[in-house]
Every structure is written in C-alpha cells, then in structure tokens.
Amino acid sequence: MNNLKQFKQMFLAQLKLTFREKQAWFWGIFFPVILMVIFMTIFSGGSSDDFNTKVVIVNESPNETSTMMEKQLQQVPIIEESGDGSVSEDKAKDLVIEKEVDAAIILPESAQSTSIKLIVNKENEQSVSTQVVSGILDNFIQQANLQAVGATPTFNQQFETVSSGDPELDYTDFLLTGMIALSIAQGGLFGMVDLVDMRRKGLIKRLRMTPAKMGIFGLSDMIMRLVFSIIQITLLSLIGVFVFGANLFINFPSLLLVFLMGALAFNAIGYFISSFSNTNEAYMGVANIVSFLMMFVSGIFFPIETMPEWLQPISNILPLTYFADGLRDSMVYNTPILSSPLWLGFGNMLLWGGVAFILGSLLYKRQSIVSTR
What crossing angle do the helices spanning 319-331 and 280-297 adopt, rounded to 10°? Predict the structure, then answer.
C-alpha cells in the first residue's frame, strides 16, 4: 500500500506540473499534430487521377508519321502539352533546362525515320514525372512497332489490387497509423527531458533524501506520459479520418494492448536516456539519433521489403517497426488479439521497454548511492 500511495502522489504531482508547462502541451500534443499533417500532406498526395505532367512535343518537320504520333500523344490524359508542336528542339531543351516543362518528346523528322527522342532534366532523371513519361513513351513505341509489322496484340495487362483488410483501404490509412506510431514514440523519447532538468536543478537529489523510490518515480512519470499518448492517438485519428479521409477498422482489444505496450516501451526508453544524460542538450542529442534512426527504417513511410537487404535485419529488431505494424493490424486490418504477429510485436516491445526501464532504474539508483557518499 505504501508503494501505491507513493505512486499516486507522484503521478498527481507530475500531472499538475505537466499541465502547467506550456511547452509540454506543445511538444506532447500540438507538435505531433503539425508533424502528422505535414507528412500526410507530402506522402499521401492525391489520387492518380489528379496526376499530370507537362510535356512539350516537338514536330519540326511534320509528316504523316509524326502527325499521327502527335495526335495520339495528345490524347494521353496525364500528359499536358506545352506549345503547339512548332517549338524547335533547341527551344525545347531550354524549356527542360529551365524546368518549365517536365520533358520534351522529339518526333521523327521524316516518315522513314525510326527515332523518337525523350529529353529530361538530369536533376529530375529519377523523378516520378520522368518515369511516367518514359513508361508511356516506351509503351507507345511498342504499340507503334506492332502496327508497323501488321501484328495484332494477343495479350493485354489487367491490374487489380488486393488486401487482407477492407477493400476501401488505401495508402492514407497505412500512413496515418505509421504517423500515429511515430508521434507516440517521439512523445516517449523526448518527453523525459524534464527528468534531466530536475536533476540539474537538484530536485532529484532532494527526492533521494526522502523515502521515495526512484523506480516508482520513473513509473509514475511514464504513466503520466501515457495519458498524453491517449490524447495523441485520439486527436490524430480524428484528424486522419475527417481531414484526410482515412478509413479505420479498429479491433479495440488489440488496439488497447498494442497502444499500452508501445507507449510504455518508448516512455521506458526515454526514461533510460534521461538516466545517463547530464544536460538537456545531451538528452536531446541521443533522443534525436534514436528517433531519426527508427523513423526511416521502421516502415513508417515505406515498406521494409523495399529497403536494402543488409538494412532489413536492423528494421526487424526495432520496437517502432512492431509498434507501427501492431497499430496497422489493430486499426486498419481489424486483427484479433490472439493473432501470432501481434504477440511477436508484444514480445519485442516488452523486451525493449523492460530492459530500458530496469537499466534506467539501476542507473538512477547508482547515482543515488554515489551522491550520498
């Protein structure tokens, strides 16, 4: 009962301090919202129906072949033609260099010519627009070759998307749950910086002179951060659904367990970082390194399968990988709580959180012993 009373008093005290601190509200609530809106706007983009690319078609020496090709290219929905076909090749190159157009297509100069040239800016050689125009032109040339030899196409491509979740799911749903995982993780990683500030001001030292236990102190702070995480996941989900049109199919028992495990694990990691950081700058430096590493190799924005093979094993041991997958399973795929992939993620997050909390408590205890000598 004494431990429970200590926990209750510490939790209420830290909750009051946090609610009085305006910076805590910004970094714990508003910053994750701003971050999610920025990344959702950048990466979710629009549908393929809204995509178009600006191309100049050069037909300096009109002939039967080039005129026919020009008319067919003009009918491609996503190609927005710049100019009227009378632009010279030199002028087209200038337009590409100045990035006024995405590409230039140079049509054959005579009916006997077999060359169609594509000009793109070297800086944008790997851009989406360049890949799209190149693919369209390659398909166009293949069709023209078949017509030239009088061949009739036998095969055609059919495109279909499938998912283990609801057919209404799209990329926005996956990105939303990834951003929620990232925001909660960063809240835990950066949220414990106040412990460093308390130690620097001597508050931790004074606390050690009382019967209070540092393990309970750290646990109470992590639970208080958990309250912030509940506000985060609720607010971010509402913004994702009503602003970005995301579709969520939630299994609440799975979500509850995934959320608790993930939030506590990252709070524990933040608690561990605070235990050996002597200044706020040192704490933020370590937290930024950890956050930056996990942000881009945990499958938040891109599937892990698309990463280099040597990097994938690292991704498969990071807690954010399993936290993001767990949120997607419980919020997008409606995965039941007894699913084996979920429990694999629980084990990973429990291991990371448990080890981090134990090491943090030991370091705080060691510092307490040293300070009393």
Answer: 60
CB-based contact 55:80 (threshold 8 Å): yes
Query: Does the reported pTM lie above 0.70?
Result: no
The kind and range of the H/E element at 241 are helix 214-242
Cβ pair 300, 178 in contact under 8 A: yes
3-state secondary structure 300-355: CCCCHHHCCCCCHHHHCCCHHHHHHHHHHHHHCCCCCCCCHHHHHHHHHHHHHHHH
DSSP string, 246-258: ------HHHHHHH
For residue 115, what pLDDT is reported? 79
The DSSP element (H or E) to which 35 belongs, if any, is: helix 31-44
Distance, CA of 367 to CA of 48 (rounded, Å): 58
**Using CA atoms, how far apart are residues 333 and 212, in angstroms rounded to an integer?**
44
Q: What is the pLDDT of residues 15-25, one digit of tens each?
A: 776 666 666 56
CB of 235 within 8 A of CB of 25? Answer: no
- Eight-class DSSP state of 149: T
| 27: nearest Cα among 229, 166, 282, 308 | 229
Amino acid type, 90 = D
